[in-house]
Amino acid sequence: MQRTRGKVFGVVVAIAATGLLAACGGNDSTASSTPTLTRTTAATQPPAASSTSVDPGQQAPAPAPAPAPEQPPAETVAPERPQPIESAPPADTSKLTDKDKKYLDALKQQGITPSTPDIALSVANYVCQGTASGASDQDLMTFVTAMAGSDPSFDPAKMPVEKAGQVYISAAKQTYCK
Fold first, then answer.
1. C-alpha angle 45/47/50, rounded to 5°?
2. How much is the pTM?
3. In 92-178, which residue ranges form alpha helices assigned H by DSSP?
4. Is 122 helix (H, G, I), strand (E, B) or coil?
């Protein structure tokens, strides 16, 4: 008797599931609505233990909504804001040598005005040391263009960085490395 009751129950559940699925679709393979996160009663509740049959045309009652999981209260944190950068003090041009001034003037004549003399002078020293050690202009160009492009006053709209690198190298060789 126990086995018969289990088989009957299994058949009833299978028929009910088939009826519910048949009522939901129309053999349509395209999605016609937005999916939700709620589940149907058949998927969330175990089958009833009684041997009563369910009419395939009827829908099961909707389940009670599950309680929302508790979430910790949101912390009120002020958004992180960058700190203002203090501008560098103006360069003290009284400490520049005549050679330094001549080099900076050569750069200015060719359209380059560095934000500080330190950047230009470090490039000039690099060019002079590289030239003294036998480095080619192409070898020097990578570092010099990087330095020229990283200067805050450099404007790529006025001059390509490669051209600025050439200007730095030629001005250093003509005025600074002697």
1. 135
2. 0.49
3. 98-109, 117-132, 137-150, 161-171
4. helix
